[in-house]
Amino acid sequence: MIVRPMTVYKYKTVSTKQDFERLKDIILNNRIYMASPLALNDPMEANSVQMSLRVAGSGYIRDCGKIHSYIESKQAEYRVLSLSAVPNSMIMWAHYAREYSGCCLIYSTEKTLSDIRPVIYTDLTFEFGEFSDEDMSQAIQESLQFKRRDWAYENEWRLIQKDEAGFLNYGVEELLGVIVGENMKRTMANRIEKLCKERNIACFRTYTMKSWNDIAFITRDMSKLFSDKGTEYITPYDMREHITKKFGEEKCTQNEYDLFFDLNEKILRTLR
């Protein structure tokens, strides 16, 4: 039985004005872009299930290590939303969030994302025999669930749809929070925090614990309270006490409180 995670994460780059406008659109308009498989960063996408066409020249194209244009046109009919089951991947914060200068969106999987599927990591390929157009659609969808083991660190879950629109619309309550990377420019981080406040969305920031070789997640106000001459010193105890006091004084929502403990479950384990 496949157990779907309650929350999933979308790492994003926020380096340019265009990046910020895209993020602003996500936060304000409750929608996120779903990419074509041909536009994803893995050139091997959708090719774990090999399909042979019975048309002239198709064998030669395959012998050259390429995919027939007809198959690629069918792949392009699908859209993929790539998400992760983990918020604390150092590799993804470094790559997809540009050295902790980007952000990570936190989504609930209870409604719109209830049909997400886990990616299966394998270096095997599978052969698909004679097929109809319906069979090809099934083969493409199944192939989009496989990636090579090199990508296993992503802990990826995917929403796969046959949709020309490109955007996935969801309810306002489904974007639970935004995590800002600690290396994001302060002006950009402040603008994102303001957007989150307007939409009543929890906003956190990464706090790299180098001596622990791990990442914690603190509320934005927490970093201001515990900073000392530009250097932050915050213990897990400080983190827990601050959010508990804040919640007791009704200065944070139940969602922000719950997310804090979910995000920092591993870090806070030391206090038990």
Which helices and strands, and how do they pair?
Layout: E1 7-12, H1 17-29, E2 31-33, E3 49-51, H2 58-63, H3 69-75, E4 78-84, H4 90-95, E5 103-108, E6 117-118, E7 120-121, E8 126-128, H5 133-143, E9 146-147, E10 156-162, E11 167-169, E12 175-180, H6 186-198, E13 202-209, E14 214-219, H7 220-226, E15 227-228, E16 231-232, H8 236-248, H9 254-263, H10 265-268
Parallel strand pairs: 3-8, 7-9, 12-13
Antiparallel strand pairs: 1-5, 2-11, 4-10, 5-12, 6-10, 13-14, 15-16
Helix pairs in contact: 1-6, 8-9
Report the order of strands and helices: EHEEHHEHEEEEHEEEEHEEHEEHHH
Q: Could you tell me how far the N terminus lies from the C terminus, measured between alpha carbons in angstroms?
A: 31 Å
Structural class: alpha+beta
Tell how many strands the DSSP assignment holds: 16
Rough outline: elongated
Unreliable segments of 5+ consecutive residues = none
What count of helical segments does DSSP give?
Answer: 10
In order across it, which strands form the biggest sheet?
1-5-12-13-14
Radius of gyration: 21 Å
What would the average pLDDT be, to the nearest integer? 89
The profile of the biggest β sheet is: 5 strands, mixed
Approximate helicity band:
25-40%
Instruction: Report the sheet-strand fraction.
Output: 25-35%
